Amino acid sequence: MSSGDDYFIGEYIMQEFYTEDLSKFGHRERVILEAILEAWNTHGLPSDFWDNEVRPAFNMNSGNVFLVNSEYQVCMLCDGTPDTLEVWHTLPYSGEEGFIFDLADLDRNSLHPDDVEYLEQYDAMEA
Question: How many domains does the chain have?
């Protein structure tokens, strides 16, 4: 398979499950986006989220609506802080995803050292 085919397959998959096209957001997603923008206006972006090429996105598989930036960082509203944005993290080795306070509850003895090191960065920030 040529690299062109790989790109096409990847593009097709991304178009199928992920979009930044607001015309593909339904009413529910636009309401969530409105709340995200209100949180951004009221409280700003999370301090560890880069303010560069920020744009709305929608994962049509999970139903999540979020902001993404040029570094592919993601932030969104969460139940624990419904009026502020939180960064959505992905652990570098296992790929486990979640808000940092959820990932911090993982048993670090069962995690790969790269994932533990990633989480320890945030422990140090909170100290």
Answer: 1
pLDDT higher for 98 or 16? 98
Query: Residue 104 and residue 118: Cα distance in Å, rounded?
Result: 10
- pLDDT tens digits along 50-69: 999 999 999 999 999 999 99
Q: Is the pTM of this model over 0.70?
A: yes
Phi-psi region of 98 (alpha: psi -120 to 50; beta: other; left: phi over 0): left
Q: Is residue 104 in some structural domain?
A: no
Cα gap 11→68, rounded to integer Å: 17
Residue 110 within any structural domain of the chain: no
Q: Which residues span the domain enclosing 43? A: 3-90
CB 83 within 8 A of CB 40: no
